[in-house]
Amino acid sequence: MSSPRPGAARPAGRVPEVWGRVPQRNKNFTGRQELLDRLRAGIAGQVTAVVPHALHGMGGVGKTQMAVEYAYRYRSEYEVVWWIPADQPVLVRASLASLAPSLGLPPATASGVEDAAKAVLEALRRGEPYDRWLLIFDNADQPEDLHDIIPHGPGHVLITSRNHRWEGVVDTVAVDVFSRKESVEFLKKRVPKGIDPDDAGRLADELGDLPLALEQAGALQAETGMGVGQYLDLLRERTSQLLAEGKPSEYPVSMTAAWGLSVASLNEKLPEAIELLRCCAFFGPEPIPRDAFSQPRVPLDERLSTLIGDPIRLSRVVGELGRYALARLDIPGRTLQIHRLIQALMREQLSEAEQERMRDQVHRLLAGYAPADPLEPGNWDRYSSLLGHITPSGIGFSELPEARETCLNIVRYLAASGDFASARTLIDTFLDDWTATSGEEHPDVLSLRLEQSNTLRELGSYDESAKLSRKYLPTAERVLGRDDDLSLRFLRGFCADLRAEGRFQQAREQDEDLLRRFEEKYGAEDVRTIRTVNNLALDLGLSSDYVGSRDRLGEAYQLCLSFDPTAVDKLTLLNVWSGLARAVRLCGDYAEACDLGEDAYAYAVEEFGPEHNRTLRTGRDLSIAWRRAPDLDRARELAEDVHARCVRQFDLDHPDTLAAAMCLANLLRTVGESDAAVELAEDTVRRYPRIYGPAHPYNHGCTGNLAIMYRVQNDPVTARRLNEEALAGLDESLGRDHHYTLTVATNLASDLAALGEYGDAVSLGRGTSRRLRAVLGPEHPLTLSCTANLSADLRAIGEKEEAEKLYKETEAAYTRTLGSDHPDVKVFQEGRHLDADFDPPPI
Fold first, then answer.
1. pTM of the model
2. Residue 759's domain is classified under what CATH number?
């Protein structure tokens, strides 16, 4: 997709390459020419950078309609026009994310809502692939809500809002009611059989020239043929009633009166339509999926149930709402939308008991519309269409079991799709009410606490996640029982918290017990058991038992392949598959790890897209395998790509970003770019303690990587100091007989040799070699690196016989494992020292 140069004119009448979610054009749009001219003059003056413009004014004056008209009138000037509901932050991100495929980016179903939205903003900022774009944020509230979401680039941004605070932030165009001339012109368009200009003027005067009120009046006269005189008599009567009631309202009395007449007329013609309108008033102001009213098994009140059970009658009712201008219908999209002012007026007319009844109906409809499995990407579009109705409907306040399950599933959907920030926000909102009404120990509250802990862990907030696990795991076990599914899932999360704290052995012991309990309850072939096997395999790897990890994952992988495709979700399969490739690599089988990793990565890209966090982890592991194989060109390309995507999507201090940065730093050192490697590694080593704390083994392992880079730059003194610090830390946390500790010990021996302290190097090398043989086996690549270095150091101190024997043993082992052409073998044969680096796995 190419883009004309900035400033180049587009052919008149040409439609944008991307046109998304813009409401249908109002064929009766009238006037506003001066405002449109002012808006165009201001917004078009921004070629390379635009200060966002805002439309503001009270409800019903036509801000949204003016924005719609601008989009249609000037669409030939743009390559992309995209409409974004902005009254709820979660909708903004979802709408931005839905633009991703049109920009050549992975869809939200693949990369997650949060990541897809960030990628869209970055693409718009760069102007790639399109530099002529228009984003319309409709019904924004506080300017700070959009501060981090409005893209600054070569395109244009248009905002509609009722909040006058925008005047102090951006250029604004104030939208008022119609002029009298515009009101008359509008009514002449809206009433097909025509209306006398004097009558139109009288009508406009009574309605205060408010566009939405005029729309209601015109629609009623068009549908009923009611004369203007009769309408004005009824309007005055209705207005007097409203004023006599003295009800405070933020809405104009003229609007309320006009709306009331339309409702009363429709009620006489088709009473069921009013029942549906009342129902729609308790959804959000965003488009309502028609299929939400096609859930025959949802238990509803008799009136609504009868209507929904008759699809022909329901279609007629929906059509009448559109004809009376009480709803906007999108036929292709199968949605209906009620203006927020009409929703508020409709709710205002109902008693508290009726409002509560109707809210209950809407909660049941939302629950019936929500798919059962929020983890299945095929269901994510439907969940996305629900987002705009979750908060406005108040479903989070409902105590209906199905309503609470829907809330939980919305949270799970947001987390599965990668929008962890929105998931966290909704969790906090639900928790306040659920704990107030049900107490901290209710199963629903505990389920929400589990989702909260899991979400915080994915965000890298390990301390907060661990606090929740420690608090609510005992509660769940006491209230629900130790072997309840929720208790077991809490324990599985707690094991991840232990790994994040560096307590690998404790996590392994807990996961071993947890697996036994899952097998006893669900059997070895249940997907919940397989997820626990995957976690235990991770524990085994973190305990240096790579063979055990590989074997566990190999069995789980074969089980997944033998299942019916619906029996195991795609994320679980990918986790097992990529974990197996990692375990095989850590066993030293680099060629097989590359084969497995390539297949797993291809699967991840195809099913989830290149920017999904699980895809990025799979890609990082594949880059490491290619580096070991070695296939350095492909390894570098993938390492740079994964790192760039992580930086763009996550915090610089996010665990995935840090792991990707260390992977790339190791690669840069391997290809001889030591300056760039040191710069990146130093920054990463500084950041790691912020996430894991100062004593975590990953911090010490990464410090060991930095030490290698200093020695490569001929600074063995600094290298020795860093490695001694890292070794002391690993000795304390993991003990000497651990892969990570022995990796640093191997490198420290090389530092000593570089400083000419060959005796100390041999002493450390002998002990390290012996331990490596016991921990990883005699032919593991790290063991061979250590013995190769030891043979060189023995020769340096005159122990030629022992050196020669060790050299021959190592050479034969290399021939059997890596082959004589591997770069490690050539370094060994030249008598140079081999380096052993560390790549932190996910926890």
1. 0.79
2. 1.25.40.10
